[in-house]
Amino acid sequence: PTPPRSWTEKSALVLRELIKAHGVELIAVGNGTGGRETETFVADFLRNFERPSDKPLHYLMVSEAGASVYSASPVAREEFPELEASQRGVVSIARRVLDPLAELVKIDPKAIGVGLYQHDVDQKQLAVKLDQVVESCVNRVGVDLNTASASLLAHIAGLNRRTAAAVVRHRDERGRFGRRDELKAVPGVGPAAFEQAAGFLRISGGDEPLDNTQIHPESYGIVRRLIDRLALGSVEAAPARLDAALAGVSTKEMARELGVGEPTFELIVENLRKPGRDPRASLDGPLLRSDVLKLSDLRPGMALRGTVRNVVDFGAFVDIGVEGDGLLHLSRMVRSSGTRVTNPHELLSVGQVIEVEVESVDPQRKRIALRLPGAAPAPERAPDRPREAQKSKPTPGKPESANRPPSRPTSARPNPPPTIDPLDQLRSHFGGDDRRRNR
Fold this sequence. Notes:
The protein is of the alpha/beta class and 439 residues long. Helices cover 37% and strands 11% of the residues. It contains 18 helices and 9 strands. The protein has helices at 8-22, 35-48, 67-71, 74-79, 85-98, 100-104, 109-112, 123-141, 150-153, 161-174, 191-197, 220-229, 238-246, 251-258, 262-273, 387-390, 422-430, 434-438; strands spanning 26-30, 58-62, 143-144, 201-202, 303-312, 315-319, 326-329, 353-362, 367-371. It has a 5-stranded mixed beta barrel with strand order 5-6-7-9-8. Helix 2 (35-48) links the parallel strand 1 (26-30) and strand 2. The chain is globular, with a radius of gyration of 29 Å. It starts with 7 loop residues before the first helix and ends with a helix.
């Protein structure tokens, strides 16, 4: 549907058939080349598409950062040997909606874009720090032992690329894992590796209900004692009875009675209360859309929801659903308490969904200035005075030559620097079109 062909009618017919054939509930649109044109096409299509009210259809803008790197990687060729590189990139974009962590670990973090100055720092030290961050995220969330890829398992504590591949190979040959203990049968996974990895691996619907929690197998005996002590009955019945049973119970005394520390006891209680809980469930979900805004639709003071696309020292760029991201400058940020923000990274993060207000719109330059609710409007700039009005008035009684300021020699007069709008300069480097930001 995008130029130069612009086959909108044919594309609409194909899209309609795909939605009906596969029961599509969400359309993922990449934000790379032609992303905005495709978004406009999808929004126009959804506006005229008849859908039951209980089954709404939305679209979602997805970052394409690193998709081209993945599509040409050995991992992608191994996963989809029959597809072309462009088709592998499309699959990657769609799977980022389903499980972004599981998909993004297949890409070198440096290819995703981790900061404005990532090429100016020591590359070895940067790679080490990025690997540490990825490993921390993967272990904090945990992975399903029966569905995780080798790329994802390789970031689990105690495992590496070789043992992760052995786990996947064992799973393919002998079927799914029923218990965490079965991991010990995988070649290369010894007692030390199992001890490190077991707490971060999940098995849903397995033989042991506690295998679907963050509780380490070493603490299973303590969990059983707690269930008996509080008369909870079983692990499956614990979520419904736990809060009532813990009413009036001292956490410190109970932990001492069980012979564990308070952090371990709190971890056990949290996982019994919500077994299989994904820590990411408390984060903001993606912003689903069914229509698209135009720059001409924006008005100062308009309240909108947007997704933070990039955070820099002077502010953040926010996608509010129009062509080009809006700039939320540091001076227009305030906390809920009304205090000013000195570091944007302390308040915002990439992917965060926030409420913003439109402060000003420049249609000619396609610039959008935003502010957080509660921030004072920016002071209006005084209009520039005409050059004629800036000339000094002659003093009565003096000749015209006496009213002229003394001039310096031509050779000593420096050339005036070119006039450059600092916001335009910053935006050209950091906030240009989607293609520039995603490279």
